[in-house]
Amino acid sequence: MLKTVPRPILRWHSQWAGLCVLCIALWISLISLISPLAFAQDASTSPLSNSLTNPLPNPRWTPGATNPAVSQANIHSTICVNGYAKSIRPPSTWTTALKRQQIRQMGLRDRRLGRYEEDHLIALSMGGHPSDERNLWPQPRSGRWSASAKDDLEFVLYKMVCTGEMGLVDAQRAIASNWVQAYETYVPSHRGWLAQRRRRFQ
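Below the sequence we write its predicted structure tokens.
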């Protein structure tokens, strides 16, 4: 013979279950509201997503800046002249001090200076501004998309500009907007130039 459950107990279980469902729904709603806000705040304030694995600077901090002394009309008397970039490069004491300052301001967890290269987003060899802080950021030295990989892209784009294969402004825009994407677009088809560059410095 089946026993019947008293109505007060059934009513209590029903109310408890309803309360649990309501709490879960409220929690999900709260999470859905908080998560986008937290992500948006992180994306706007953290230039490297607080990580050594993100190769791209936050454009809010480092959008890139060009050198007003360089234009398409004078590339063969400026950037395409051997030694030009070296002649306008800021002293290492200044860039090291800026790197330390930016690492602190940007809230990077790993503050060891050796883990980063204070890099010009738009390279000096491509008409980047030498001392505008909007064109400099502490770039990770490790990982697939390290500072050395960006150096390869810079050389390829520099050669493309100086041989007339690409316009100066187009090259600057490509590296400033997403240098990893630019690498994948231009470096594989110009690896011969990289081999020449490496032999030169061996």
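The two ends are 94 Å apart (CA to CA).
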